[in-house]
Amino acid sequence: MKKEAIVLLNMGGPNNLEEVEVFLTNMFNDKNIITVKSSLLRSFIAKMITFTRTEKAQEIYRRIGGKSPLVGHTKNLVKKLKNRVREGVVVDFAMRYTPPFAAEVIERLNKENIERIYLIPLYPQFSTTTTKSSLEDFEEQYHLRGGDAILIEIKHFFQNINYNKAIIERIKERVDADECKDFDIIFSAHGLPQKIVDAGDIYERHVQKHVEILKQMLKDEGMNFNEAHLAYQSKVGPMEWLKPSLEEKLGEIKSRSVVIFPIAFTIDNSETDFELEIEYREIARELGFEDYRVCRCPNDSELFVEALAEIYAKMR
Fold first, then answer.
1. What are phi and psi of 124, to 5 degrees?
2. Distance between CA atoms of residues 223 and 168, nearest Å
């Protein structure tokens, strides 16, 4: 009997300290990340960045348990989604820069009698650097391995109601409705070089639309924050990135109590567990914040599982 498969796609994260170099090497060799046309030049740039950043990156992962939490959360999400969809549907996941790579997952799928594969990148908003990169990688590897299933993809889901309910649920875990008036909320999105946006990437517009949806949902839930903001984190290098940066935003707001929600991530990773929880917490302390709270990503929450099941059903 012909089967269907759901494959969740994400960028990945080191499963141990030795994989940090693998992660960086693969990420900076991605033509959607380092956008120079010459593959030789891209490879040279990747080697230089990896050489200079590996030790520092290893220390970051050492401080959050010696690995990225992303793969573990994803395994839990896959297990729950498999229990949620109809019997016989294969549910798996592939990472862009660390194991399990697309090629490994495709080898498993090719042993099944799969007729349709539904690709769901776990990036709520579309970007060439994330969604496009993951989809292209899976599709290229699939065709290289002679697969003949129909590939069906979705490119964003930030408007999905159940997904946004999962976000509201996470925010409510960190702050009560009665407390909201004393807090500002910052939706922190992963930054992107301005030149990528100028070249036509729609990520910034998707993030802005997503913030407006969530602001209205919070209002409807009686979660009346003092103010709501959008900022961007994770800037690296000297080039211009999307603004304002999270550090700039923390320095601007007048409230001394703040809740951070990582709007660009569905699964916790080093940018949430280290950058937001540790680095920016220290910045907030230095700026005199009295209360600094970071929300968890949806991870394997029941509402996120429900959202993915709904997305799959609508794709069929």
1. -65, -40
2. 9
Predicted confidence band of residue 255 (pLDDT cuts 50, 70, 90): confident
In the three-class reduction of DSSP (H, G, I as helix; E, B as strand; rest coil), residue 303 is classed as: helix
Sign, CA dihedral 127-14-17-21, equals negative
Of 125, 146, 257, 100, give the one whose Cα is nearest residue 190: 125
* DSSP symbol at 152: E
Cβ-contact 142, 177 below 8 angstroms: no
Burial label, 198 (beta-carbon count in 10 A; 0-12, 13-18, 19+): exposed
State whether the Cα torsion 154-156-158-164 is positive or negative.
Answer: positive
Q: What does the chain come to in residues? A: 316
Tell me the per-residue pLDDT of 267-279, one tens digit each, with 9 for 90 and over.
Answer: 999 999 999 999 9
Rounded to whole angstroms, what are the CA distances from 283 to 217, 248, 266? 29, 10, 24
Residue 150's DSSP bridge partners are 116
Q: Which residues contact 228 (CB under 8 A, 6 or more apart)?
A: 184, 185, 186, 187, 211, 215, 218
CA dist 259 and 281 (Å) reads 11
Give Cβ neighbours of residue 61 (< 8 Å, ≥ 6 apart). Answer: 14, 17, 20, 67, 68, 270, 274
Q: Are 185 and 171 contacting, i.e. CB atoms less than 8 angstroms apart? A: yes
- Can you give the C-alpha Rg of the chain in angstroms? 20
By percentage, how much of the chain surpasses pLDDT 90?
88
Phi–psi pair at 20, nearest 5 degrees: -60, -45
φ, ψ (nearest 5 deg) of residue 138: -65, -45
Q: Residue 83 has what pLDDT?
A: 97
User: Positive or negative, the Cα torsion across 128, 314, 266, 217?
Assistant: positive
